[in-house]
Amino acid sequence: xxxxxxxxxxxxxxxxxxxxxxxxxxQIIGKVKLALNPFLNQWWQVAFYLNMKGMTxxxxxxxxxxxxxxxxxxxxxxxxxxxxxxxxxxxLFPSSVAEFFSVFMETLKxxxxxxxxxxxxxxxxxxVKFELDNAKKEYDKDSVNIxxxxxxxxxxxxxxxxxxxxxxxxxxHFFWGSFDLCETRFSGNTCTIPVGSGSILKxxxxxxxxxxxxxxxxKNYPHAAFYSYFYPAPEGIETTGNHAEKYYNNSMREYIFDxxxxxxxxxxxxxxxxxxxxTYDTGVRAAGWNVESLKAEIPFNRSNIK
Length: 306
What we know:
Blueprint: H1 3-6, H2 12-36, E1 49-50, E2 54-56, E3 60-62, E4 65-72, E5 77-82, E6 87-91, E7 95-96, H3 97-110, E8 136-137, H4 141-162, E9 173-175, E10 180-190, H5 199-204, E11 207-215, E12 225-231, E13 248-249, E14 254-258, H6 259-264, H7 268-287, H8 291-294
Antiparallel strand pairs: 1-2, 2-4, 3-4, 4-5, 5-6, 7-8, 9-10, 10-11, 11-12, 12-14, 13-14
Helix pairs in contact: 4-7
């Protein structure tokens, strides 16, 4: 399989209406997980995970059992599975957010799951409550499938990068609010959150960290891209004078590497790892992290495993 098949084109303008529709549908499911799962540091309990057919919530506790919700991006269906062997399927197709919300919540009730969620979308410009969003949205199944296949390749690269770090780090997971597949490394030090910060920032950024990942673009930055940033940002990180400086985006205030540039390169995987390593090395030294103590020793070469 050549790199063109592994890393297909993903232009924001070709599927932005579908993207917004999918974003809202995934937020509805995400808010159910938020309402029912116990808190885990940095909000890890709300994240989704890639699987062989799409994306899953993982297990969600409810009363004496658990249930799981899966977006199947091959067959384009939403599956709700209960530990008592009940199963419901909701097709994914062009619809309004309100219509999907109504069908989904009624389906949960038919399974004996009663949950109340905040219906206002988060981390989304000009949000409209789910039950009031009656504008019909497109749902281009091919574009959704392409996006998911790209995420599979991105996950492999992020997992490879993750192996070089021995400190606290998140799993590679998907946040349905910001709509990115990401991972975070932590220095081991806490940090002070600005006064007046909301609850998301209060618990997401209470430790020094290096966060990196991939998102498909939005109205403010209409390009699929890889990104990385340090929190808190080391002073002068945007004018370091080294290789990482070329990635720094002053308006976004973080490092940005457009997906199109990645797939135009001779080796997309190596280009992504180069971006991650250069931005990490630059920021971690500027921030004064104990680099050597956080470096993992990899005990074997995978090609030599017997």
